Amino acid sequence: MxxxxxxxxxxxxxxxxxxxxxxxYHCKCGSTWTKTYRVQGQEPDTxxxx
Length: 50
Hints:
It contains no helices and three strands. The chain is an all-beta fold and 50 residues long.
């Protein structure tokens, strides 16, 4: 039996309530990863009320 090589398949991106960019990945074996990018020195953008 061979070794398992984990391949990260992108599930998607979103922006958190704190203004961070969040990327989610998964592997066919069931493993998952989340990578977060923080913006330093800036307040998150807000959308105007409708």
